[in-house]
Amino acid sequence: MKVLVLGATGNVGSRLLPALLAYKHQVVVYVRNEQKLKELIDSSVTSQLTIVTGNATDAQAIKEALVNHRCNALINSAGLAAILPWQAPRMQGIINAVSTAAVNASKELKCPIRAWFLGGLTAMDVPGTNGNKITR
Q1: Which of 20, 23, 30, 121 is most buried, with most CB under 10 Å away?
Q2: How many CA atoms lie within 13 A of 92 on its CB side?
């Protein structure tokens, strides 16, 4: 399977890369910063990756990565927990862009794209919000 991974420099994504390669998947990573990827991930892993740079909120660029590399699956582990009140939450924009890209790429490729959305701390409730939705 050819898999596009978003969030490859994070805790979850960086652990997925060697596992995907061990199971003989072809891996395309979509990262903001290629240099950061190469600093964090061993060269024995990065040498087996196809690297695409871009922003995780850019649905068109993500779709192009899926189509151009003929990926039939994606794993999104990208997302930064907002550190309130200093940062705005980004997760909704990322999920929207990635899911839109997957649907549009599926239409263009004329085949379904399997999609997994993974999260850690970002998906948890933020203390002090009483379960209210966090919006800007």
Answers
A1: 30
A2: 7
- Could you tell me if 88 and 128 are in contact, meaning their C-beta atoms sit under 8 angstroms apart? no
- Using one digit for the tens of pLDDT, what is the confidence trace for 8-34? 998 889 999 999 999 999 999 999 999
Beta bridge partners, 73, equal 3, 114
* Bridge partners for 116 per DSSP: 75
Q: What is the rounded (10 degree) CA torsion for 120, 3, 97, 118?
A: -10
d(CA 74, CA 77): 10
Which residues face 118 on adjacent strands? none
3-class SS of residue 68: helix
Write out pLDDT tens, residues 93-122.
899 999 999 999 999 999 999 999 987 555
Rounded to two decimals, the pTM is 0.84
Find all residues with CB under 8 Å of 70, minimum gap 6, and list them: 2, 109
Looking up tokens 């390669």, which residue turns up?
21
